């Protein structure tokens, strides 16, 4: 691909692999070839990472059955031990937007990742309101729905 000289932010991604981002400088008349090796994401990525303080050290602000909401924005499932972070409400939230949001959480030192299909199925409860999940896992601007 022909590009004008300058600095470019390059991102390479593939489903099931960690996204790589880098800045590349291209000088006038320079041909440049980039080789990118993506690391496969495995289910062994911890949630949360050991580098992030556990939610148990935060103040509890609300409970709903097996779920506990903490002041730091984390919701813990006491049955599975998983900790969830509520994402922003967007009408067009696709997989790529969700992945980008999760990666921004990692930049803050967290060990967050997208949930597996089985984990998502685990939080879905029949007859649990309009969305089928605990209100604690809904964005605050739609919790009443």
Describe this structure in words.
The structure is a single chain. The chain has 145 residues and is of the alpha+beta class. The protein folds into two domains: 1-41, no CATH class; 55-142, no CATH class. The protein is 14% helix and 21% strand. It has two helices and six strands, in the order E-E-E-E-E-E-H-H. It has a four-stranded antiparallel beta sheet, with no helix packed on it. A two-stranded antiparallel sheet has the order 1-2. The longest helix is centred in the last third of the chain and has 13 residues, at 95-107. The termini are far apart.
The proportion of residues in beta strands is: 15-25%
Flag low-confidence runs. Answer: 42-53, 141-145
Question: What average pLDDT do the residues reach?
Answer: 75
Distance between the termini: 48 Å
Please give the radius of gyration in angstroms. Answer: 19 Å
In N-to-C order, the SSE pattern is: EEEEEEHH
- How many DSSP E strands? 6
Helix and strand content put the structural class at: alpha+beta
Number of helices: 2
| Total tally of structural domains | 2
Shape: elongated
Q: Considering DSSP H and I runs of 4 or more, what fraction of the residues is helical?
A: 10-25%
Main β-sheet description: 4 strands, antiparallel
**Strands of the biggest beta sheet: in what spatial order?**
3-4-5-6
Quick description:
This protein is an alpha+beta fold and 145 residues long.
Features:
2 helices, elongated, 14% helix, two-stranded antiparallel sheet, four-stranded antiparallel sheet, 145 residues, 6 strands
